[in-house]
Amino acid sequence: MIAADDIFRRAQPLLGTLVEVSVPHGFKHEAELAFTAMHSVHRLMSFHETGSDVSRINRLRPGEVLECHPWTVEVLAAALDLNTRSSGLFEICVAQVLVKSGFLPNVAGRSSGQCGGRSPDIHLHGVGNVSVSRPVLIDLGGIAKGFAVDQAIAALRDAGVPCAMVNAGGDLRCYGALAWPVHLRDADGTVGAEIALSNQAIASSANLLSRKRRLLRANTPHIGPNGRPVRIDRTISVIAPSCMMADALTKVAMIDAEMAECLLLSGQGQILLDGAPVQARAA
Amino acid sequence: MFSRRFILGAIPAVLLSRHTRADATVYFSTDTVKAQMFGLANRFVDRSFDLTRAQSSAIRAASRARVNSNRITAFDAYRANQKLGTLVIDRVYGKHEFITYAVAISAGGAVTGVEIMDYRESYGDQVRNERWRAQFTGRRAGQPLSINNEIRNISGATLSCVHITDGVRRVLATYSQLLA
Hints:
The complex is a heterodimer of chains A (283) and B (180).
Chain A: E1 7-14, E2 17-24, H1 28-45, H2 53-58, E3 66-67, H3 70-85, H4 95-100, E4 122-125, E5 129-132, H5 144-158, E6 164-168, E7 171-175, E8 180-185, E9 191-197, E10 201-205, E11 212-214, E12 217-219, E13 236-240, H6 243-255, H7 257-263, E14 270-273, E15 276-277
Antiparallel strand pairs in A: 1-2, 2-6, 3-5, 4-5, 6-7, 7-10, 8-9, 10-13, 11-12, 13-14, 14-15
Helix pairs in contact in A: 1-5, 5-6, 6-7
Chain B: H1 2-10, H2 13-17, E1 22-26, H3 30-37, E2 43-46, E3 49-50, H4 53-63, E4 71-79, E5 82-93, E6 97-106, E7 111-122, H5 130-134, E8 154-155, H6 162-179
Antiparallel strand pairs in B: 1-7, 2-4, 3-4, 4-5, 5-6, 6-7
Helix pairs in contact in B: 4-6
C-alpha cells in the first residue's frame, strides 16, 4: 500500500468530472503540467464549449474543410479506426441521440434531425484537415477523457517524474515502479473488487445510476448500433496499455465483451465484468 | 422505501458498517491551498462573513444555484500592498459525494483556478442518506477531516462535476455582489 504521506495529490473539476493527479512529493510543480495538458484537451474536445474543435466539426457543412489541432485529429483517427474494426459498434456520431434524450444540450443553429452523418462520413486528409460528406453531431465523451489522461501521463513522464497516477473520474492510468491499488465501483455505487495496477490504464463504464426516463423508456448516455440506448446493470472495466483505448473499449464491451476482447492486442489487457475477468471465447 | 428503512434500522450498527464505508481524501488545508493558488502572496486578509437572508436570496437569483450555507469563507491575497486576487472556499453536496473546494479569482474578477480541497464519497448504502450528509453540515472549512491514511483510487462510472460547476457560479455571484 502506498502511504498518503509519500504522494502529493491534486484534483480539479475538468472534463466533466473530477480529475486527480498523484505524484511523489518532490514533483509538486510538475503536477501542473498534467493539468495544463488536460485543460488543453478539454478546450479542444468539449461538446459544450462553442470554440472547441468538436463544436466546429459539429457546425461543419459538406464541402468545407476545417483545420483542427493535431490532438483532435489523433483522437478522431483512433475513433474512426475503432469504428471500422468494431463493425460500427464504437461510434462518435451519437450526439444526435444524446441531445434528444437530454444528456447533451442543443447545438445552436443546428437541428439534431439534420445531422444524420455517421463515422464513415468523416474524412481526415492532409495535415490536420477534417471534412464531412454529411453533417454530423459528434461527441468524443467516450474516448477523449482517456486521451486526456494519456497526454497528462506523457507530460509527467517527459518532465522526469518517476511515477504517477492520473485519474479522470475513474478512467485512470499509472506508470513507474509502484503498483497502485485500484478499487472497482460496481454499477450500484458500492465498491467491490480491488486490483493492483502497474504501468497500465483502466476505464470503467456503467449506467445503472445515470438513466433518464422519458416516455416510459429509460435512456442512458450509451447508444447502441441501432441508435437505441444500451442498458447494462453491471460495470464493465477494461485494462489496456493506454487510457484512450481502455476508455473507448468500455463502450464496445458494454455491447459485445468478446469483440472488445478481440480488439485488445493479445496479452495487453483484460475485460472485467463487476471486477471479474470475462472469459474469452474458446479459440 | 419504508421496508428498506425498516431493514436498515433492524441491522446492528457493527454489521452495517461492513457495508457502508466513506473515505475522505484531503488535498489541501486552508493554508496550503492559499500557497498553492496565490504562491506570490505574502499576506492574506480574512473577508469571511455571514450572509443575510436578503443577500442569500440575491445570490441564489443571480447564480441559479442553491445557497447551502450562509457562511462565506474568503481571503484577499496581497503581495505587499498590491491585491493579487481573492480566494473563496466553498463546498457542494453531490449525490454520492461531499466536496470542499477553493476558487481563485483575479483582481479583475476572473476565475483563475479551482482546486479540490477535500473530497469524501460514499462507498455503498449511505448514498442519498441524509444522515450521512448531516455529519458534515456543521463543519467549518479548513477544519481537518479524519483521513484514511492510504491512497484510494476508484474506477467506476464517471462522477459528474455538475455540482461544482453550479458552486463556482454561486461563488462568482457572491464575489461580484459582496467581495469585489
